[in-house]
């Protein structure tokens, strides 16, 4: 069994340019760990993380919210459907061994972070706001790692793999 | 069709005594609006909100995470099952017309708040921490109402019913 | 807790006139047992069973496949949503204490019958074809009752309530 | 994107020795089409189909019903979880481009066949009973192919790939 790293972040409507570029680099980092990249299968950070992983020779899986594979991005090796809308967020989290969150600036991503905390999944959050950190730390400091750069993210990822 | 008010809050492991008592009073308020009370069906605030609604003559529905009705509290007129664990949180939110959150001090409740924001459901949060308010306001101020007492909650609820 | 009787059958595209009329009468029978009628919330037999239950003073719950209550029929006291398309069929079955199937002439209804057999839920099938009976009996004769008239259905329902 | 072929059949409690051996050979055939094998992730035919695919150099995905990867078989490259019990059957079907059913002798497999018919997914059924064929043909003859041997299955699979 391969290790599965979920990369969670906003779609194109809510993602900033920085989010999209960051997710692309995260995808490359994930592929280099020889883990499978799991994402929500759609646009924005989901697409760019899968694109990054493919560029680095990785394997990509998407668990999408709709009933139609044509809705999903083209960088997925294995596009899976649920027809469950955001109800599928639970599945993305429960299927991941480690999670990486891009900024947590959208409610969909927040629902995934909440499930990750509930399940005790090791989670790295990059580019989170100060207010988000304060609240999440109040809720649970356990297994949640905040990083501000890709270098720091790489360090945390290495640590989780040891 | 009756209006459905979802009351979301922690189970007995994570609920404080104040949460449980507050949920009981919220249950009574919900019943007095002649709405159906919807909750997650289990213990803690879920049980006490249903108990409060029954005491005030209301109708109570629970959407539970397990496969067995014996897991659910005894104050539910209509105990529904999903077998989906916390995946059922999405259903609690999408089925509610209005949501009331008790404190948002547990990740399960946070996942429900995140879905409510994503769906644009009118939501009242009672006894939220300052850090939670700061972050949620940063994420989205839309249709989210923070209150610190049952009197304020009653006022917001009346306003939503106009 | 009230007993929940699920009435499962096709929507308006696949239901015959006989199915729709039969479901209406089943709704009335369910209401007279003082049980809650649970259905899939949409048109066809789902609508007419809820209409029948309301005419007989019953309480009706629908678990719908879409994200919008406006898609659901008007005879539901408690319209619940899942946004899960036919994935919600599992929930209809697991939430019911007893199931009544109208003819099983559509694949959606068949998926619900299959789940009912899997969970060992007592199930009455009215107006099933001979071929369906032969196959279902081969798969499992346990707790599955075939009836050809509303009178026979009433007898089986009484027996299940003893 | 790779094509996904779902192989659906009973777990070890309900599978016959013939079912298990047949699923193993199906797994090999699927791998030779260069498609991804998707299964329910557990024991019995699910395990042997994945084992067969791995022996032939294929890629295997499981969508499991539980919350724990340790419940899943060891021949899965990508073990995904849902925590949804048999509610996950819907996902197995909606995610597959083509489905192969081993015998349809258990209600879980029947629920998956019912969903496949509802979604119009091309489906091959091997070793189905005469009674099952009669009923399924009555329900829908569309895109459902009955075969009695692996050779016939191979022919149908080739045809679907043209």
Secondary structure layout:
Four copies of one chain form a homotetramer.
Chain A: E1 4-8, H1 17-32, E2 36-39, H2 45-55, E3 59-64, E4 78-81, H3 89-95, E5 98-102, H4 107-119, E6 123-126, H5 130-139, E7 144-147, H6 150-161
Parallel strand pairs in A: 1-2, 1-5, 2-3, 3-4, 5-6, 6-7
Helix pairs in contact in A: 1-2, 3-4
User: Secondary-structure element order of chain A, as H and E?
Assistant: EHEHEEHEHEHEH
Could you name the ranges of chain A where pLDDT drops below 50 across 5 or more consecutive residues? none
Oligomer, anyone? homotetramer
The helix content of chain A is: 40-55%
What is the rounded Rg of chain A? 14 Å
Main sheet: strands, sense, barrel of chain A: 7 strands, parallel
Number of helices of chain A: 6
Greatest interface and its participating residue counts:
C-D, 27 and 27 residues
Record the strand order, biggest sheet of chain A: 4-3-2-1-5-6-7
Rounded to the nearest angstrom, the distance between the terminal CA atoms of chain A is 17 Å
Please report the total strand number of chain A as a whole number: 7
Task: Summarize the structure in words.
The structure is a homotetramer of 162-residue chains. Chain A is 43% helix and 20% strand. With 162 residues, the first copy, chain A, is α/β, with parallel strands linked by helices. In chain A, strand 6, helix 5 (130-139) and strand 7 form a beta-alpha-beta unit. In chain A, helix 1 (17-32) runs parallel beside helix 2 and helix 3 packs across helix 4 (107-119). Chain A is globular, with a radius of gyration of 14 Å. Chains B and C meet through strand 3, strand 4 and helix 3 of B and strand 3, strand 4 and helix 3 of C.
């Amino acid at each position: 069994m391969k290790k599965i790293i979920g990369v969670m972040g906003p779609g194109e409507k809510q993602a900033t340019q920085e989010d999209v570029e960051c997710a692309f680099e995260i995808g490359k980092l994930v592929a280099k760990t020889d883990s499978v990249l799991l994402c929500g299968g759609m646009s924005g950070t989901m697409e760019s993380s899968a694109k990054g992983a493919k560029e680095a020779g990785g394997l990509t899986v998407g668990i999408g919210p709709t009933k139609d594979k044509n809705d999903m991005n083209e960088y997925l090796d294995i596009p899976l459907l649920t027809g469950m809308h955001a109800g599928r967020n639970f599945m993305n989290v429960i299927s991941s061994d480690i999670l990486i969150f891009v900024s947590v600036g959208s409610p969909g991503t927040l629902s995934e972070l909440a499930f990750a905390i509930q399940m005790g999944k090791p989670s790295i959050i990059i580019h989170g706001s100060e207010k988000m950190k304060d609240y999440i730390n109040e809720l649970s400091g356990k297994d949640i790692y905040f990083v501000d750069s890709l270098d720091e993210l790489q360090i945390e990822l290495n640590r989780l793999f040891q």
